[in-house]
Amino acid sequence: xxxxxxxxxxxxxxxxxxxxxxxxxxxxxxxxxxxxxxxxxxxxxxxxxxxxxxxxxxxxxxxxxxxxxxxxxxxxxxxxxxxxxxxxxxxxxxxxxxxxxxxxxxxxxxxxxxxxxxxxxxxxxxxxxxxxxxxxxxxxxxxxxxxxxxxxxxxxxxxxxxxxxxxxxxxxxxxxxxxxxxxxxxxxxxxxxxxxxxxxxxxxxxxxxx
Length: 210
Hints:
With 210 residues, this protein is an alpha+beta fold. The chain folds into two domains: 9-165, no CATH class; 168-196. Helices cover 57% and strands 8% of the residues. The chain has helices at residues 9-37, 70-88, 94-116, 142-159, 169-199; strands spanning 44-45, 52-58, 126-131, 139-140. It has a four-stranded antiparallel sheet. Helix 2 (70-88) runs antiparallel to helix 3. The radius of gyration is 30 Å and the shape is elongated. The protein starts with 8 loop residues before the first helix and ends in an 11-residue tail after the last helix.
């Protein structure tokens, strides 16, 4: 079994909601500072070429893919957010609650941009500002960081067999194996008991004449 007792569903849901709200607030705050203080489309070195600030408005996905179909990303983000909220109602795992809360916050951060920023509702451009040109050409934001790390964490939790209810895959295998072994043992004991009954002489057996 897992080392900790599973959470109550209400507690797991609270973790998801609080983390999502914190990530969303942090993402929108950084975007606000970016809009108010950074020049548009001009690199501002922070740690040389290792880390730069570069304010752009992105109508598409990473690497500006799909810039002409912004509404598709809005729908996709809405669906993902809905699925996470739906899954949160059945959670009893701390790790899953933390991961899904962070992931939901990232999704809501970019979805907020899609819904409420220019040029219009549902087709808004996402504010990006973080650039690491030595590692990848894409410019990203705080929400993107939590989305990527959240997706990687989801994959790891699935690989290691952690379930939404707080148990692990191997726990169910052990339980099923133990139940099967117990059933076999009971069947063997019953068979042995029946053999003993069949082997005893009956009360109406004829007595041996002298």
